[in-house]
Amino acid sequence: MYLALDSHEQEIANAAAAFLRAEFPLARLHARRDDDARLAEFSTLGWFGLAVAEERGGSGLGVIEQMLFFLELGRVAGPFGVLPQALALQVAADEPELLRALLAGEENVALLVERDGSGARGLGGDNCRYALELTAGESTLFRLAREQCDDVPCLDRSVVMFKTPASALQTVARVTGDGLWLRAQVCVSAMLLGAAASALDMITGYAKERETFGRPIGAYQAVRHPCADMAVRVESARCQLYYAAAALAAGHDDAALQVAAARLVAQHAARANTDANIQLHGGIGVTDEFSAHLLLKRANLLWRLFGSGRDRARTLLQVDDLDGAGS
Fold first, then answer.
1. Each residue of 46-74: pLDDT tens digit?
2. Inter-axis angle of helices 179-209 and 82-91, to 10 degrees?
3. What residues contact residue 143 under an 8 Å CB cut-off, 6+ apart?
4. Measured between alpha carbons, how far is 178 from 148 in angstroms, rounded to an integer?
5. Which CATH class for the 7-177 domain?
6. So where are the chain's domains?
7. Cα dihedral 270, 272, 276, 278 sign
8. H or E element: which one contains 143?
């Protein structure tokens, strides 16, 4: 990949887009469906195992192809469980039976987003019997006693959030190093970019059809200029994400820095674009029946995963103490 997709990569992106838009259109979320109950459908087409070695049952591809898939997943606010499922395969690589079950979608994985000595908070449905925790230096896969967990409300109502006691977690596998952490950042950045791009598509389509005073609203600067800003944010995030994925795939020394930059740019694009999409739609934009809020809620959920913006800023500035870094 030379900062633009080759024919092979474009085919993967097109195939992912066709599958997701047909099977998981954004409007489906109005019905409050349990998306994670359909994770086995992703296994059938091999989407979980894109980055798993062929001899272990995967496709033998890499972070670039995985990034392209998650970008399309972000466009439709696809099933959240796909993220921990795909990442957990890297931790379970030396556990053949578990790896096979995860690849086949027979076992599902939740994502732990917060853990201390008393317990943890995670994201994942009732069918998740494993849970993944990612940190910058270590990734751990736990056996999860889901029946001991208590569900709690989540801003994104398509995602199940729960609290679990420490006794419900039993370590199954662990890997050290920051490789999976960086890969996770790329995947989340791709989903954030997908949300930003989907918001742009939604408002530009509306701006061409909605008329006021006999003209499409897109003819007015008050709409046209914010749409242009949204397009710039999408393209900036796309360029940085492609570069970061290529740097990580090639093992460049500055890969961590490029990934941190991609995450910051992507999350800014997602939050700004999904908010602007609502505002530019006017009254209909704030209604529950319309789909704009679905993208905003998913963007806000993703924004909080895998560290803070301050942590990523430290990586970019290469300082330990942001407060003492000056301007």
1. 899 998 888 888 888 999 999 999 999 99
2. 160
3. 129, 130, 169, 170, 171, 172
4. 31
5. mainly alpha
6. 7-177, 180-324
7. positive
8. strand 138-144
